[in-house]
Amino acid sequence: MSNKKGNILQAQELAKQIPAVERLKKGPVAIIECIEEIPCNPCVESCPQGAISMPGGLNAVPILDWEKCTGCGLCISACPGLAIFVVDLTEGREQARVALPYEFIPLPQKGERVVALDRQGNELGPAEVLRVQQGKRLDRTCIITIAVPREWALAARNIRRAER
Amino acid sequence: MRITEHPILSFKQGRRISFKLDGKTLPGCEGQTVAAALHAAGVSTYRKSPQLQRPRGFFCAIGKCSSCLMTVDGVPNVRVCITPLQEGMEVQSTPGKGCLPDEDPVPAWPWPEHYADRILETEVAIVGAGPAGLSAAVETTGLGAETIIIDENDRIGGQLIKQTHMFFGSKKQHAKVRGIDIAPLLLDQIEGSKARIMLGATVVGFYDDKVLAIVRGGEFFGLRAKKIIMASGASENMLAFQNCDLPGVYGAGAVQTLMNVYGIIPGNRVLMVGAGNIGLIVSYQLLQAGVEVAEVIEAAPRIGGYQVHAAKIRRAGVPISTGHTIEKALGTEKVEGAVVARVDESWDLIPGTQRELEVETICLAVGLSPTVELLFQAGCQSWYVPELGGHVVAHDENLETTVRGVYVTGDASGIEEASTAMLEGRLAGLCAAESLGKKAASGKREEIIDQIRELRAGPFGEKARRGKEKMSRETWSHVQQKR
Ligand SMILES: Cc1cc2nc3c(=O)[nH]c(=O)nc-3n(C[C@H](O)[C@H](O)[C@H](O)COP(=O)(O)OP(=O)(O)OC[C@H]3O[C@@H](n4cnc5c(N)ncnc54)[C@H](O)[C@@H]3O)c2cc1C
Ligand code: SF4
Ligand code: SF4
Ligand code: FES
Predict the structure, then answer these.
(1) pLDDT in tens, A27-74
(2) How many domains does chain B contain in total?
(3) Are residues B225 and B122 in the same domain?
(4) What whole-number distance in Å separates Cα of residue B49 and Cα of residue A43?
């Protein structure tokens, strides 16, 4: 088990989950922030590309093949730990996109300005909602895609609606 | 107090009815318990303790702690947390220890001669309709054994009915399905022609010759079964601190019941004590219901639950303070705040580190203990195994206890999770049916055992693994000594 002294995953503990810069520049890719050996595997079954594997069985840490992953985001709402995000740092784009699981109401609207939060719930700054996905297949875990400055792509993991 | 909108649940409000509290008319809804209606009406104190006159409210909300006793329609000491509200009900706080009314509203206690003709018969009796009990019934009825399932709740599902989050595990154990959606799936798998489900019925005694004594709506009867499967779940642990008996100090399961079953928030600002999976999950569910979680404190130096559960509440801004404990609850009639403080390595409070928090509710998520009193009465051998949650009943690999034909399964056999509870339930059901001479598909028992092993194989399953080993060792050496 990793260091869990009150605080949550730090960048260095996640290093292994984050693809190389060259891959990130190529287009959207999943980042699986699940690094403990827990008995769980819906992520493996959810990926149509077969990009997620657990060679050690049910309790193993999921391993993502970044080359196979298309960033489709299907795994996001399948994960009971709400631990999967899709980050899009496509080269040449001014802003990064982060797709995250969201189970709160009211849902933000497309085009809404929200506040991006980091892993400790600290405010990073404003973000724009690009897409809100919901539906039967997602079973009440909505997927929100936000546009944020590129340097927040690996930090922005939640949103807060600005007016409340 | 009422939740009108929720990201996962939709609450159907029952017909509006009214009831009386100490003569005063209060509004309520059909489908609520008396406790839920009282809480929704802003009443948190139900009575005064008989000796010291301390205010008492509810604590567990699942009928296991007796903190919520009141007088209902003349009957004293009724657990209002599991009593369905009815139009015109007269609820009173029981004075002192309560005494029975002169005119007995319940039928007289049956004497042996009446008793004999009030004993039902069945092949298998299952006590508890949680994930373990329902899964057991899937196997027993599937193999053709006539089965009666008894539960004191007015709906099936046990703890599942309040678990709004998606489950872990693998597909075989309904991973990624929300807990609330699992009981109907299990019910579908039960062979209806062989099963009877008796709800609102409490098993109050376990007598010789496998006769269960059952109370249901003021009626008392017996049920004789060839095999008995106890799937009675667990009760929430208490923590001792100053003022821990104040109304507003609630168990995590109680908070979940109030919020996710009845759509009533426990308070506007909550302190969560315990950062195991339950504390983390319930904190997240509180946020989903629009409640502010002031802080999660944990005495151990690290978070006990899954990192992914902790991450969900951290990124919503909830602080998790490890190495912290609660010193006292503040308030006289109900919780108005809490004092928390740091602890050293031996878990002793470090003076001078106290901080005051303004909260309306203190939620305790400090573990569960198996509900096994009926099995003690049955004469089952038991051991104290802290890894399994305290006093547990000795059982073999098939979950049979030292009293032949009596099985224990799910949280009652040692605290684990719903996924293991479902598998253990199936195992007990299968073994009970086989011992009645029914034939299960070959290899099925082994397959279930393998799945249980797989679930317990990781670092988080270590405690259960160790506990079960310790329990078997104790049992084995005891058997040898006896020979
Ligand atoms: C807050 C919380 C979160 C959880 N999250 C998860 C999770 O994410 N994943 C997971 O796998 N597990 C989870 N669990 C654990 C899981 O809910 C339990 O392990 C599981 O419900 C145990 O099942 P059971 O059938 O043994 O007992 P229960 O579900 O407790 O059912 C026991 C039933 O027996 C009935 N009963 C007891 N005594 C009597 C009697 N004398 N007469 C009649 N009826 C009686 C009760 O009314 C109850 O309905 C969580 C538990 C809690 C409290
Ligand atoms: S984003 Fe799509 S392709 Fe990538 S791991 Fe998830 S499901 Fe597979
Ligand atoms: S589904 Fe989510 S929580 Fe489960 S193993 Fe995969 S990433 Fe981890
Ligand atoms: S028995 Fe009613 S609150 Fe515990």
Answers:
(1) 999 999 999 999 999 999 999 999 999 998 999 999 999 999 999 999
(2) 3
(3) yes
(4) 51
